[in-house]
Design goal:
Shape: globular
CATH superfamily: NAD(P)-binding Rossmann-like Domain
Distance between the termini: 30 Å
Number of domains: 1
Strand order of the largest sheet: 3-2-1-4-5-6-11
Oligomer: single chain
Largest sheet: 7 strands, parallel
Helix content: 40-55%
Number of strands: 13
Number of helices: 12
Strand content: 15-25%
CATH architecture: 3-Layer(aba) Sandwich
CATH topology: Rossmann fold
Amino acid sequence: MKIPKKSFTWLITGVAGFIGSHILETLLANNQRVLGVDNLFSGSKKNLNRVLREVGKESWKNFSFYNDDIRDKKICNRLCKRSDFVLHQAAVGSVTRSIKDPNFSHDVNVNGFLNMLEAVRNSHCQRFIFASSSSVYGNDKSLPKLESVVGDPLSPYATTKKINEIYADVYAKNYGLEYIGLRYFNVFGERQDPNGPYAAVIPRWINALIKKEEIYINGDGKTSRDFCYVKNVVQANLKASFSQNPKAINGIYNVAFGDKTSLNKLFKIIKSELNIERKIQPIYRDFRPGDIRHSHANIDKAKKNISYKPEYSITEGIKRTINWYKEEII
């Protein structure tokens, strides 16, 4: 995505993570100055090195990395005071991990988030863009998901994201802070970690199929998700940052492709794109606690208010993702 030629200073939290590193790459490719903070709990220096390879040494000079934690108020304040825009991506992800350790998820996702809000309100930042999650819809069964209709959260992770949205709105009303929250729906793409117990389904399956390992599906495979390629998410962050539409400000938006894909269909798509002809079937096992059954976003509000227009379908995104993983794994 092309952005205005004027150079701004951006702060990306979670900059070494999967999504944060893609935002970094786009900003540096467009001659922007970037401050990035990451404690490297789930982020990786490898992702930053990959961005360096993509943008080149000259653009890389516009980036400053801080190996720090958003639970440290001092680093939040120091970096926000130097920034025009803040893109808050840092969080402890995974529903499953939050159920096992709710205190850790709350500490980072809520206390860290509150530190960022305080730092932004005490700075000259123009706008605070933050990553929320489709998990906030909880037990609401209506489809497609509308921003105005949410159910009860089903996990500590979902609860932290819902609290984030409430806090942002409170800061807008009390302190005049300008924010836009983005509810991500199952983001996937290059650099997403395929390993570990909390790995997302698409990188894990691609990795397993390339290595001829077994594929597991939690439940009956009819569970569906609105899978969103990471470049669509980058676009949403930047359009949210630059939107001049008064109706866009201080709002929450679904960020997805706007379609649903079952896990059974996803398996077939990945298998087809990998050109695997042998007869291989997934192994079905129990549903995971805290998981919602279906997820499908209505993205009309984002289209109307921030001019979001997803460019990549799930199939197009998976093609790009597979090509990257083939180079990384083989």
